[in-house]
Every structure is written in structure tokens, then in C-alpha cells.
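Table 4 source record.
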Amino acid sequence: VNQLLLKTDNAGLSNFNLNQNLETFLTSQEKQFIQHCLEQTKDLDQACDVLKISKSNLYKKIKDLNINYE
């Protein structure tokens, strides 16, 4: 996780908008973090290990957050 966090560039915070509610902001950040994790690991099992979630939960988040992953 630390290595993954070190590769981020605070892009999510630069788009911070006070007109959005907390739930919208957190959902957006979760989506960006999962996308970044998938891009860096290129493997669902490794992404699950980094995110500390089950594979079924990751699949659900990919679907619910409309994340494009092949």
C-alpha cells in the first residue's frame, strides 16, 4: 500500500469541489484509488491483497463504480 500511495500525485485533491457532498467525494476517491491500484498491479488478486478486500467485493465495486477493467 505504501508503494502504491507514493506513486499518487494528489490529482484527486486538486479536483476538490466544495459543492459536492461527502458521499460523492468519498465515492469518487474510492473509484480513483481502485483504478490506480488496478493499473499498478495489473492483477485482480494482487489488487485484492493491496486493497484488503475479497475478489467478489472487488468485482462488485468495479461494477457499482463503473470502472473499466479488462
